[in-house]
């Protein structure tokens, strides 16, 4: 991992992953991509959730386009596919990932945020897809993830007009789930990550892996998959311990 671009720390069983290129508003070069790949492909066993954040004012201003300029079509294709793999590791990895967003989440910054499972924005945050005005098209996942969160029409609007999506509207549109005062997004994200980390690993696996796939299935297939994954999750010995504790508590309350 390129340590001068990403800061990694722990708060109990929550991993904090901080983008740390403030002079470029966290524009992401390949070195940052490789760092993120290393982090999210080797999550320690005692980590239950992660927070992805910026160490400075802005979450992320997108890819470092100096690394794309002048590349051939096939080289660009492979470069974008490498980013797809990294964001896939975030979305379908070992643990839930909460994004703490302040300032700009532009282009690939938005795309990275949509690969996370929960998004917390503070009052300074905004999302933007300026690729249209630059003669470009989104390249590292927005076409797939963003319409699933907020609809195709909103994405078309943002790309055709370049208009930003401010924090408050991002929550009302379903892009983000929590709006907090300026400067408190990381604290809120850590709070949520700590709660998620208390879930059993198999339960969190079902939530972040099975649920998105069930949503894409037809009703009959989805119900079958739901029953199957629920049966697997409830079969674990740790689940039995938690269920017994819950049922015993309910019996005590009924007396």
Automatic annotation (TrEMBL):
One of its GO terms (molecular function) is lyase activity. InterPro entries: ClpP/crotonase-like_dom_sf (IPR029045), Enoyl-CoA_hyd/isom_CS (IPR018376), Enoyl-CoA_hydra/iso (IPR001753), Enoyl-CoA_hydra_C (IPR014748). Keywords: Lyase. It comes from the Bacteria. The keyword Membrane does not apply. GO terms for biological process: fatty acid beta-oxidation. PROSITE patterns: ENOYL_COA_HYDRATASE. Belongs to the enoyl-CoA hydratase/isomerase family. This is Enoyl-CoA hydratase/carnithine racemase. It comes from Paraburkholderia susongensis. The lineage of its organism: Bacteria, Pseudomonadati, Pseudomonadota, Betaproteobacteria, Burkholderiales.
């Amino acid at each position: 991992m390129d340590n001068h671009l990403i800061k990694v720390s722990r708060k109990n069983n929550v991993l904090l992953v901080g983008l740390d290129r403030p002079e470029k508003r966290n524009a992401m070069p390949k070195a940052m991509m490789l760092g993120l790949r290393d982090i999210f492909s080797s999550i320690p066993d005692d980590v239950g959730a992660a927070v992805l954040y910026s160490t400075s004012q802005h979450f992320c201003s997108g890819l470092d386009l100096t690394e794309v300029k002048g590349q051939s079509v096939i080289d660009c294709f492979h470069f974008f596919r490498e980013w797809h793999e990294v964001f896939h590791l975030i979305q379908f990895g070992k643990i839930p990932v909460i994004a703490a967003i302040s300032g700009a989440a532009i282009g690939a910054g938005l795309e990275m945020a949509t690969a996370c499972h929960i998004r917390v924005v503070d009052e300074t945050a905004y999302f933007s897809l300026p690729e249209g005005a630059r003669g470009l098209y989104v390249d590292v996942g927005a076409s797939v993830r963003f319409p699933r969160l907020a609809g195709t029409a909103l994405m078309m609007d943002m790309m055709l007009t370049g208009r930003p999506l401010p924090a408050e509207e991002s929550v009302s549109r379903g892009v983000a789930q929590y709006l907090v005062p300026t400067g408190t997004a990381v604290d809120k994200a850590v709070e949520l990550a700590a709660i998620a980390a208390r879930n059993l690993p198999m339960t969190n696996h079902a939530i972040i892996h099975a649920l998105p796939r069930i949503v894409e299935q037809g009703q009959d297939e989805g119900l079958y998959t739901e029953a199957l994954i629920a049966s697997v999750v409830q079969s674990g010995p740790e689940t039995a311990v938690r269920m017994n504790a819950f049922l015993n508590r309910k019996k005590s309350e009924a007396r």
